[in-house]
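agent> step 3/5: call structure_predict on target '3'(2'),5'-bisphosphate nucleotidase CysQ' (Streptomyces pseudovenezuelae).
agent> reason: downstream docking stage needs a structural representation; sequence fetched in step 2, passing through unchanged.
tool.input:
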Amino acid sequence: MSETFQTSDVAASDADLLAQTAIAVREAGSALRERFGEVVRYETREELMHALAANDDMALDILRPRLTSLRPDAGWVEDELDGGALPAGEWWVVDPAEGNVNHLHALPEWAVTATLVRENQPVLTVVHLPLTGETYTALTGAGAHLDGRPLQVSRTADLGLSIVATSQARPDEDEKVVRRVGSSITAMLFDALVVRVAVPATLHLLSVAAGRIDAFWQFAGARADLLPGALLVTEAGGQISDAEGLPWTPQSHSFVAAAPGVHAEAVSTLSR
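tool.output (status=ok):
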């Protein structure tokens, strides 16, 4: 009985933590929404990077103190391009403006995300879309939800009937990775019904979790743009792996998330 009580207590604690995390993420999203709407053209890469940093800093000024107060001993990761395994313990992996470049160009595809990682496993995540007001959440063992409604991945079992998507992992990517991305898109154009290519990765993964898109893949990538979606997709009944079908970790060099009925076929296409 003691072991059962402790497990339930931890689950209840994480559920409350998820609710408090969602409040903080929504507040950061509201601040970024106030800055959204005007298209500004930048003359240099330096100007663009300064504007991106300004958005990040505004959201982080809200997220960092609130999330730190919820888990004072947790580490903190806010560089969306960081990858690889984390040290032991708990870590907040935050993308204060996922799709930041879209935000600056008055495109609607952007979000605010926060994920708690425990011993290199995502435990809970919140993804908020400020322009629609939607909030996606997932808690290990408790499912994935959109504004409280359960999410379920697609039941499609034929890649030829599937909408699939990919995303650019990062600017200035290694040439070999860029060429692999290009060849994978070509392969999917032959095998899938529709191929969507856009940033950011997280928004595609939301659609996989919600059953709107059947599969997503990406080569390279970082923790902040894959961990939230990885948890949402698995908790919504989907499968994740690397492009060879092996278990995915933040150290993997590729990522696939798909409905169970098309996962193996998607991996086969990407492995050609």
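agent> step 4/5: record observation. Helices lie at 2-34, 45-70, 100-104, 175-191, 201-209, 223-235, 260-270.
agent> proceeding.
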